[in-house]
Automatic annotation (TrEMBL):
It catalyses: a D-hexose + ATP = a D-hexose 6-phosphate + ADP + H(+); D-fructose + ATP = D-fructose 6-phosphate + ADP + H(+). PROSITE patterns: HEXOKINASE_2. This is Phosphotransferase. GO terms for cellular component: cytosol; mitochondrion. Pathway: Carbohydrate degradation; glycolysis; D-glyceraldehyde 3-phosphate and glycerone phosphate from D-glucose: step 1/4; Carbohydrate metabolism; hexose metabolism. The keyword Chloroplast does not apply. Belongs to the hexokinase family. One of its GO terms (biological process) is intracellular glucose homeostasis. Keywords: ATP-binding, Glycolysis, Kinase, Nucleotide-binding, Transferase. PANTHER family: HEXOKINASE, HEXOKINASE TYPE 1-RELATED. One of its GO terms (molecular function) is mannokinase activity. Residues 11-211 form the Hexokinase N-terminal domain. Residues 217-461 form the Hexokinase C-terminal domain.
Length: 466
């Protein structure tokens, strides 16, 4: 009974720590909107609002074969996309695993590995029965490189890496043109491929969602990291005025919103666990918003709470907890499995702790862990809703309504995540804190294959412009 009471007390404490009230959410939306405005007005702001040089929406008539490679954070995906016009397409894709060491080695080596994966893919999918390439002599396949780290671009086929995020630290890459580096790797493998577009995954998802449904106007990625993109009027991007782009055009804006509230930490509700995640990360101070929201960090937040309770002799007394004390040992995918457990005895939770950490658990503890996972992920989803609401407010989309295309395993696979984002939007836009009764005009949906498809469409749009 004492354990039960102790756990009950603790849970109440964590509930209040991770709770995000509608009032607090509205304050965050206001601060967020101001940060977006500032990023559009001046270069090098906390939320940098990177111009993408993707001009306007696709016509949905784009056609042809395109290769894409997505370097997202956890996996590496290569796709062959055949655009058939009328919004139709076919995708063949392969996934390649990225090892932890590859995120630390020299940047050129990382791109060499990407080119090697492309070569494997081309050999497997683009050769005829005689082993020859299914391309005419001298023909190059247009290639869209989906590179989901903050880059500053001057053209669609160029981009300087501002800084690595999501645990990547490859030397000799920050400040370099990653498109040029990638071309070097393509040459090394003698591939008949021409890098036509360097695309952020959110921009890709934005264009792909609109291609599938023109009501889609905002894109969000909630996977290893977290970011968003939307279509902005060029006349509302003062910082690129000097480029002399026609004021009547539109350009996709890659918000890089993972950086919201970095350095100053004025707005976000950071707990002491969030502070530890930040301080022990490879980039302390940076990506403050992302660190509260994305797949890379949520499991770690739960693990840090559990470690504190181990130190306080509340959990796992007399057991060897060394496995659980390894940083990042608790993947966010496991929180998903815990919340999905429908059994009374929480058999999946028993299995997770026994299998991954060699720990025995009592039923009250398992319920407690699951409740903690829920609190951490609900806060993440509600913060995500604040970001979406900021773009909706900025673009005045509430009245006419819009769809928000979302990519990423956290959004797509975590039980209840989608509903929690929608509840969050209701809390923000509802009347005086009451959730609106009419169906909400802003609806998020899973944008399947978003970044790969989007990158191909952008490569096609670029070709047409040339
Ligand atoms: P990426 O962002 O690298 O392109 P994903 O969208 O698959 O790839 O996101 C990977 C992240 O999602 C990892 O941080 C992982 O912990 C998390 N993740 C994977 N599966 C799940 C799941 N079932 N539920 C919640 N999070 C998951």
């Amino acid at each position: 009974h004492t354990t039960e009471k102790m756990i009950g007390d603790r849970l109440r404490k964590y509930e209040s720590l991770f709770k995000l009230t509608p009032e607090h959410m509205r304050r965050l939306v206001k601060a967020f909107t101001e940060a977006l405005d500032l990023g559009l007005a001046k270069p090098k702001q906390v939320v940098p609002m990177e111009p993408t040089f993707v001009f306007g929406w696709p016509s949905r008539q784009e056609q042809g074969d395109f290769l894409t490679l997505d370097l997202g954070g956890t996996n590496l995906r290569v796709c062959l996309v055949t655009l058939q016009g009328e919004g139709k397409f076919e995708i063949t894709q392969s996934k390649y695993q990225l090892k932890e060491e590859q995120k630390q080695e020299d940047g050129q080596k990382l791109f060499d590995f990407c080119a090697e994966c492309l070569k494997k893919f081309v050999d497997a999918h683009l050769t005829d029965e005689n082993g020859g390439l299914r391309l005419k002599p001298g023909e190059n396949l247009p290639f869209g490189f989906t590179f989901s780290y903050p880059c500053s671009q001057e053209r669609i086929d160029h981009g300087e890496l501002i800084r690595w995020t999501k645990g990547f630290q490859n030397p000799h890459t920050e400040g370099q043109d990653v498109a040029a580096m990638f071309r070097k790797s393509l040459e090394r493998f003698n591939l008949p491929i021409e890098l036509t577009a360097l695309v952020n995954d959110t921009t890709g998802t934005l264009i792909a969602s609109h291609y599938a449904n023109p009501k889609s106007k905002i894109a969000v990625v909630l996977g290893t990291g977290c970011n968003a993109a939307y279509m902005e009027h060029v006349k509302n991007i003062p910082k690129i005025k000097h480029l002399g782009i026609d004021d009547n055009t539109q350009m996709a804006s890659n918000c890089e919103w993972g950086a919201f509230d970095s350095f100053e930490h004025e707005h976000l509700p950071r707990t002491k666990y969030d502070v530890i995640v930040d301080e022990t990360s490879s980039k302390p101070g940076e990506q403050a918003f992302e660190k509260l929201i994305s797949g890379l960090y949520l499991g770690e937040i739960l693990r840090l709470i559990l470690c504190e309770l181990i130190d306080e002799d509340v959990l796992f007394l007399g057991q060897d907890t060394s496995q659980l004390e390894i940083p990042y040992a608790l993947d966010t995918a496991l929180l998903s499995l815990m919340e999905n457990d429908q059994t009374d005895a929480l058999l999946t939770v028993i299995g997770i702790f026994a299998h991954f950490f060699a720990l025995e658990t009592a039923i009250e503890e398992r319920q407690f862990f699951r409740a903690l996972a829920h609190l951490i992920v609900v806060r993440a989803a509600r913060l995500g809703a604040c970001g979406i609401a900021a773009i909706v407010s900025r673009m005045d989309y509430l009245e006419e309504g819009c769809l928000v295309g979302v990519e990423g395993s956290l959004y797509n696979k975590y039980p209840g995540f989608v509903e929690t984002v929608h509840e969050g939007l209701q809390d923000i836009f509802g009347e005086q804190g009451r959730r609106v009764l009419i169906p909400l005009n802003i609806i998020t949906h899973h944008a399947e294959d978003g970044s790969g498809l989007g990158s191909a469409i952008i490569a096609a749009m670029t070709r047409i412009r040339l």
